[in-house]
Amino acid sequence: INELTTPGARFLLGKAEDADVGSNSLQGYELEANEYFAVEVKESTDGTKFAELVLRRALDREREPSLRLVLTALDGGDPPRSGTAQLCINVTDANDNAPVFAQDRYRASLREDAPPGFTVLNVSASDADAGTYARITYRFGKMPAKVLHKFVMDAESGTITLQEALDFEDTRRYTVLVEASDGGGLVAHCEVEVEVLDVNDNAPDITILSVSSPVAEDAPAGTVVALLNVKDPDSGGNGEVSCELLGEAPLSLVASSGGSYKVLVLVKALDREEAAFHELVLRASDGGEPARTGTARIRVAVLDANDNAPVFSQAEYTVRVPEDVPVGSTLVTVTATDADEGLNGHVEYS
Length: 350
What we know:
It is a single chain. By secondary structure, the protein is mostly beta strands. The chain has four domains: 82 residues, Sandwich (Immunoglobulin-like); 98 residues, Cadherins (Immunoglobulin-like, Sandwich); 99 residues, Cadherins (Immunoglobulin-like, Sandwich); 42 residues, Immunoglobulin-like. Helix content is 2%, strand content 43%. It is built from one helix and 25 strands. Strand 20 and strand 21 form a beta hairpin. The longest helix is centred in the middle third of the chain and has 6 residues. 19% of the residues are buried. One of its GO terms (biological process) is homophilic cell adhesion via plasma membrane adhesion molecules.
């Protein structure tokens, strides 16, 4: 009998035989006490009494897949005599149970450098039905293509594997919808939350926003020479950046109130005559293990100021001149130099 059979349904059981006649013949039937079935006595046109099994309560194969009941036939003699038969009732399955996931929500964490083919996790659903009604297949629910391209589902085992490389800086969390279907078309759903864990796969990036070049050599200390921005898209310690200025230069690196912005300022006066330009190397290091670094170069030219007077090659020249030297004769040539450049270094004599 199928478990979806409606209460009130009747099943003919046939009849018992009694060779006696009259009151000593078959008079009725009794059924072993149970919660599902009752027996009713029916009489045919020829007076023969037969039994009908009546379903009183809905069956449930998952609760009781089979029943064994004793049917007794009684006569009216004194003392009465009886005969028994065993009723073996097999409850056949109906697809009255949907699949059920072991969890409504699954959670998994993956490093962003996990390779394609890496197992994310395994979802599991069960079905109380039997046979094909209990056979479960898995698939993804309706999701954006971006998510569907990242993962692949094994329809038989419920194993989710990684299909494309992850990138923490692009997406930090995925919500994957999973459906489980049984052989009768009933469906259950669950969610899988996949958290992407950061890996120190990005070096700090230094962006030069502006550079003041050339810088006048008489510029005061504290003059801002360059503005730069330092960023690292990683998170946590992997994204914490420290900066330093390599080499010797009369400049200092100062963090601004914005956090990631840095400024290069003069810490002492420049001297173009000592160095006409300065080559600066900036190095930024993150807090990862191992740390990653990024570098940038800045060339700052020094603009001349007229801070040097001309200097004669000699402080005093002594010349001996004959008294008959002709007018217009060269007596001596004096020379002076100026360390400045351009017009500041052009020397005139008087």
